[in-house]
Amino acid sequence: MLQLQKIRENKDAIIDALKKRNIDADVMLNGVLHLDEKRRSLQTELDSTLAESNSISKEIGIFFKNGKAAEANELKAKTTALKEASKKLGDDLNTTTEELQNLLYQIPNIPHESVPGGSTDEDNEEVFREGTIPKLIEGALPHWELAKKHDIIDFELGVKITGAGFPVYKGKGARLQRALISYFLDKNTEAGYTEIQVPHLVNEASGYGTGQLPDKEGQMYHIQADDLYLIPTAEVPVTNLFRDEIVKADDFPIKYTGYTPCFRREAGSYGAHVRGLNRLHQFDKVELVRVEHPNNSYAALDGMVEHLKNILRELKLPFRILRLCGGDLGFTAALTYDFEVFSTAQDRWLEISSVSNFETYQANRLKLRFKDENGKTQLAHTLNGSSLALPRVLAGILENYQTVDGIKIPEVLVSYCGFDSI
Q: 0.85 exceeded by the pTM?
């Protein structure tokens, strides 16, 4: 979330920046400043009341010690009134602080200066494209028909067991899925990321820490009996490793990668564009998370982009990179690049990764800090990216690598799969 001091000092600039998101933040920011002023006033009054009460309590002790019980009892009545006043002030302070925090949670991150204006994904800016779109055989099929033809993914069986959006991978389909996970993890660890395995459920504090709550509460699966949430991405548990931590500046860059299943309700998603692997409620993903010094976070973001380019080059999939416009930018991100693979059989681009810099937005929620060279405590910058989300990568491989004899396996995956075709 945005820092209070930054809002106090740069209110007009923040209002202007958030217009890129098509948000008029004037009312919200004025509300924040009003509640902040009220909170500070209540805190000052409470401190004064408590100080006066403590001072009088000392006087009462002196009076009793000197045998002046009447004077002591007279002051005791005053301390009783002060205690009642301090309790009310404390309650008002807690209520105001909670209202302020809830309002701050509703304000999205400030877009980076390079973020283009725009309202929808049609306004996103293409910044890179590479690869040749293959010419498919006559009668080429979309991946959901290929999966059925070769009996490698069973969508109907998933519906039987759970519901729509929970496919069952079978035989070579399951092995290809596992191969992709291993390949992505190997590429990431070779690039200096530490592999980590994390829980697939998180508590409410973790959801608030990375910004999924309250913004995306309706998109998360909530286990009410235990008040836990199934993770929508490994970003949540991995980034929360650093909640309430002061890291060492010498530890930068901090780089983690992890594989997890991901769970998203995707409420309201329907239609042809979500068929097959295009939109799932449960899917596998390998994630990158970085904690960086503020001076290096955008260089780190560029490095993550180049890393993903190299993976897609090895897979020999045609891809492009988009810089998201303000209207399509995620709630917590300052700058996001989307990677898309071209699905030849569907004749459209499929998003396979988002790589984002959150600057201090998540760190402020997490209280993730470091000490600079002057010993001053500062907020770190956090970044994350999919490396990669499997469903649409798998869809792209199945569709773009289909031949009259079946489906070829990308050369780089053959050693992981143990076979070269389906």
A: yes
